[in-house]
Fold these 2 entries.
Entry 1:
Amino acid sequence: MKKKLYLLFAVLLILSTKTVAQEIQTFEIEAKIDSLIPTRVKDSTPGLVVGIVKDGKLIFKKGYGLGNMAYKIPNDSKMVYNLGSASKQFLGYAFAMLHAQGKLNLDDSANMYLDDWPTFDHPVSLRHLLTHTSGYREAYAMSELAGRAIDVDRLTQDECLQVIRKQPNLEYVPGTRHTYNSTTYVVLSKILEKVTNTPANEWVEKNIFKPLEMNNTQIESYVGELIINASESYSFDREKGYTNEKSNRAIFGAADVYSSVEDLAKWFTIFRSDILGGKKTQNVFLKPFVLTDGTNSEYALGIRTEIHNGLKVYHHTGGHENFISQLRYYPDYDLGIIVLTNFGRNGWLSASKLAELFLEAEMAVAPQKELKQISMEKDKLKQLEGIYVAQTLNGMLNLSMVDESLTLNGRNPLVPISEGNFGIKGWNGEIEIQQSSESTLLHLIDGQKKTYYRVKKWVKNDKKLKTYEGKYWSDELEMVYNLYIENGELMVKNRWFGIMKLQPISKDFFESSKGYYVKFTRNQRGEISGLNINSERTLNVYFDRIK
């Protein structure tokens, strides 16, 4: 009897020790995460919620700050938050399922599924839409050019589709570039509705959320729809104080999924198991698109597939109103990280930094590229100075001499590693410069290759500047831009757009105060005939000069 009691006591002691060890481990996790919380997040401010998923279990969940300031409701793991662009992965998974079921083919043309849809010189497939490689216009940028404030002015699904219907040409050959484009996911939601004869939000809720028991996850299908247990998002201004941010758009596909830490922990099941749709669905969903030049875009169907310090990670971020979401999953270690904030950048906590708390020992920081510097005469370096404009006319670089070194944008010294090739300390990319009697080209190689050409800096001249004045009309936007001189500056004015200044870079090429690049066109007589507007996401929005 005594022996049995002794054995029972020993077992209880072991179990007790194990429980204490687990408690200490959880306490250590909490302490470390607490130490990383942004200093602007207090009990009385908006904040964030964090979830850690290990081996399919939510091992840590905690809210910081308030989810609703008016009623002083704290952020917590059950409250739902607008995921912004992180919503794209749900629609991506839906298309992977339909492809696996044979109800559509990802390499089908979008024109097969949409009525009254434009036909361009090159076919655009469903896969192109899903991987941001289509060449279609981006509705957000076009709305801004039309003078419409994103989130303030209404933007509907039909208006997004109309942007592409009015597009004169593709911005690039499909599959040749990866340019993030939320509008293609609005198109995809319409296609899913056509294929399934069910509204896209209802199909996703029934076929993805319910099987995974994501019972609190909801999709906003129209502006103002009641979302149960939803957090509010806030910004802060020193003069105005806190503002409750609102949105005037609900375009599922691009965004507008509301979910909680507890539901998103269940979503990670699809990365670790083929329980929903089978192995074929999972493989299709996670396969990154390879561009036509062989470059891996590192983007699959609504999810990024990258390497973080030597470890594979599936991830996506999102932003809507003043919500920011981060979802990361490390398949080799079955670790998921969820960070949802309702305080914008004030509540930012890097999900990758949280992953490093758990995987630091397994991570291998990518070795820095060894730069074997060669000697290069100062005169030769100086010959490379100048302004280099992107071949796509939506960006520029400046090479200049600073303290005996050729620098990029006056900050980063270029290290010559061979004739015409340069590196930068701490960066694994490379800059290649090719000179000829006709031109000087700069190739920035960092995963993808971007080409810039050197232009002659244009010295502002009032007489020459005046030649750009006039009215310019866009058929796409159905609006007029008025260009005029004010205090020696070229200005652009529109009734809805407001006013922006154009800063001359080189002949016929200007940078605007709102981040756009403007390239003027000329006719055969050398007269200014129009202008093109370019940005990071949108190219060649043409305005014809009105005589």
Entry 2:
Amino acid sequence: PCPSRGQPSRMFASNATSAMKGADMDRLWLKGYPAGVPHDIKPEEYTSVVELLEDSLKKYADQPISVCMDGWMKFGELDKLSQQLGVWLQSLQLEPDARVAIMLPTIPQFAVSMAGVLRAGYTCVNVNPLYTARELEHQIKDSGATTIIILENFAHTLAEVIARTPIKHVCMTSMGDLLGAAYGAWITFAVRHLAKMVPKFEIPLDGRNVTPFKKALSMGAGKPLRKPQVNHDSIAFLQYTGGTTGLSKGAVLTHRNIIAATLQAEAWFAPAYQGQANLSKLHSIAALPLYHIFALTLLLLALRQGSSLSLIPNPRDIPKFVEVLRKRPFHTLPAVNTLFNALLQNEKFRALDFSALAVSQAGGMAASEGTAKQWQKVTGKVMIEGWGMSETCAIGTNNPVTATQFSGTIGLPRPGIDIAIKDDDGNNVPQGQNGEICIKGPNVMRGYYNQPEETAKAFTADGFMRTGDIGVMDERGYTKIIDRKKDMILVSGFNVFPNELENVISLCPGVVECARSEEHTSELQSH
């Protein structure tokens, strides 16, 4: 550190600071950030998601990562099991950039599978277990997945289409596989024979192999896991969109994207946990399906923090869900508006102790003002709404966790993210005017898998991704979604958005929830 070297460094730092201040001046939302929330994050902190995972798995080895049906799993156990699964996957001699489909609900096997696939150096393809055969066939073919990890409950769907897909390796798990020997065996028996939740199926072999999940783990036990050759630009996940405008597309999420989204979530939620001496003591509720990008980010955040999750395989069973909530304090509860609403209708839920609850995070669909007001009345906590997409690694904008009331907006861009409201030609519209919400940041996908034309259409000339959502940004940087671009209804020459109608109706006494019919929307459009 001689003077001749020190001076240029200070000059560079000064110039960089000036440039940052200039950039921040254009990001008017930064003024609304809670104290301590950084303006940007540094994905370079990790070379890959694998490094993030392995760092946490070792650091928090003795801490619990999840509980499901009273069966606990520690970080150290997740480390061991995911390594064993990774070794088994590598033994299949898959191609270096192989895609591995994961068709699991919110059970412990999901985290083991996700971590195992990534640690082996492959790409996770998350699959909705409730897919129809047609939807499953499309996603497997489109992704080119040659291996699938699946719960036996859904194997009948796979059996219908596997002959027309590139799948060669099937890893089959049962509900109780990771819930302990005796209890797990009982759960599997109950699911198969009492609840009869495993329809009959027959997987045609014809060059394929079917390996029980527990056998795959045992085959990888005691063997070294080869270090994968992955970096920031490697594909970590193919996260498929809902396909509301046609066949679903695979959003290419790189290791850099996933790291960025995890660090953004950590930075944004930090003010809510002030006073919590040990973040590893935080407990969150994973009621949303882990294959969905919203819940997946929650899992990654828990892994980063060393905190734990209650896994809820069937959140539709509200009485059983509420019983889980009664068992231990919970600090974070992410949910869609429908789930918040269902909980509010349950008398036992309304009697719970909400003193530990720090974050009530709404996302996945529009949150209604009526539900938000009722939530605050019952729990004493503010519901904060966020917005995002599979293409943005979940939440791109969020209301501050320090909010004292529901804002009716989707909040502010998270650290490192830019939002612009643009017209059809990609030009920024004047502040306060409606336009398409466009987003740029380290969390935004690289593009759609093997669809260069769709990727080109998705981005503006200046690098922002078009979201298809119509919104307006106010002078504080808060954005309000008007509706989906394709859902706009023309009535006597005026633009009418279903979201506006639903929000007003939700405030009417006696209304529990609003929903729209696409058929009726089409009729209004035609008139």
